[in-house]
Task: structure prediction
Amino acid sequence: MEATTAEEEDDASISFFMKLAFDQAKEALTRLEVPVGCVIIQDGHVIGSGSNRTNETRNATRHAEMEAIDMVLNGWHKTSETATDPSLGPLPTHVDVVKRFGNCDLFVTCEPCIMCAAALCLLGFRKVYYGCTNDRFGGCGSVLSLHSDGCAPFTNGLDKTRGFQSVGGVMADEAISLLRSFYEQGNPNAPRPHRPVCKHHLVS
Amino acid sequence: MGEEDLNGTLRRWHVTHIAADLETTPTTVLVVAASVEPKLTSLLIRELNIKSPLPTLAHVKRVRKTADEGGVKLSIILCAVEGDTTAAVDGHIPIPEHLVEVVKNFSLQPFVAVVPKQAASSREEWEAQCQLWPTSFHPNACTRAAKLKLSDEEEEVICKFMKLAIKQASNGAVIVDPVLNSVIAWGHDETTVPNISVSHDCHDQICLTEDEPSTSQCTKMGLGECHPDCQVNVGASKEVSQSYFVPTKGTEKMPRRFQWHPLRHAVMVAIDMAAERDRSLFPSSDSHSTAVGPSGQQEAEENVKSSPGDCYEDTNTYILGLPLSRPYLCTGFDIYVTREPCAMCAMALVHQRVRRVIYGISNKMVGSLGSKYRLHGRRSLNHHYTVFQVSITEDDISGSPL
Result:
């Protein structure tokens, strides 16, 4: 794990972009989704944003990061469509995509889960800032450390294992209270518990 | 399976259970314990739970009860022996500073005891553990390191569905409802530019059938159609028809603007299709887009009452004459995938709550269900599926269409 702490970074721009991620998260809350939001930054500009859509899509993989990534890829696709050179094809090649994400940073209100952390490795993100940790699913140090272990691309012949710089704890308290406000209201899509929740006996 | 021998019987691949934990040899750790008056026990427990919690020994019971001449004798664990344990073995009892006062107040006579380091993985192991110190035992978790054994019939079904995944692509996946033996969704790796043009508007260009259906029975279902057009021989005699849900062109769906996507591994594609099927089959329960407010709260409660898993009778959705219940994500479904899932795909399947993951070829570099990681053994996750591997080879999948 990288030893970088949030304090060492450019605090003003970090909190500026993280606040934008929070705007996304709050928007998810109004749609009764788990409030996690995300923005993707390239050269100081927001090129992608997104928030959880797992309930709406019935697809538990539609996390904020995935939504923002798809927005970026859609944008690049559109740009290449209008390009005059037909040899560019419908989308830049895999190598091009990885090269472009190598200049991108991602801000997300909660630590990326193992799935998203692996996806961020596959795409070759430069740096990831997150709010609160995700003790149950986190892939940037909590359960697995994919940002430092790296994750080799699956099939495309790029065999170098990649990781990314990970900076946690950016506005963590705000992230926790936002998540708490959601779970207090109750997740309407959570499955019925298998058995009634009972108090844990300290000693039996 | 894979090929037929001269007698026409199917020669099967071998199916292995990939246990959630590697087998471990039982190990023990030292703790400081003390006898305690039964009257004072509850008071002491309360104090110790605050001052000296034992997070790494959650499987160990804090109090041991032994029959003694003249009554019951209780011993209680004060703390684990930290750091250098040789001194403790030599008779020196290391009492941490924060417990010195407790020992004094309760006039305890500390001694060193041996307790099991890990929770028992079998009943036999648990019984052996209790000789040392009582532990708790959860039979549901006891198969973590033990290999599950499948019946011949179960293995045969698994091999048949694996063959369907291979028919998809060398990098293919199918999601199966094991109760109806029907295919819910399928997909193949879309991370590279395809050589042949594959349309994403309609999934029905991918044919999983071995034989053309003799009769085409199309039942109108919601926004799409059900094609019970594939006969898969399950078991020795009974034939169960496969229901394929095919989303019709032009229906509302996730925008898919590109021919390839760096994250569209076969598993992710199949999950996407399962979600699409869910949305098309059960559009009525898609009522979460309204804003939160006083009514939003109420709506949330109503949704909990008619929670997923119930039958949505109002949708008039039937398969094989049975009312179809809306799944919660992929709960209860199995996924067959030709190659071991990476961390992204393995975690996606945790999120999607599949019941079993059956994969083919291991991936030493990134495989996360036994090779690089053993994700299904991570206790912190909120869902755990069972994992099997089918002994297919690169030769078996080399003839795949994609």
Confidence is low (pLDDT under 50) at residues 5-9, 196-257, 286-316 of chain B.
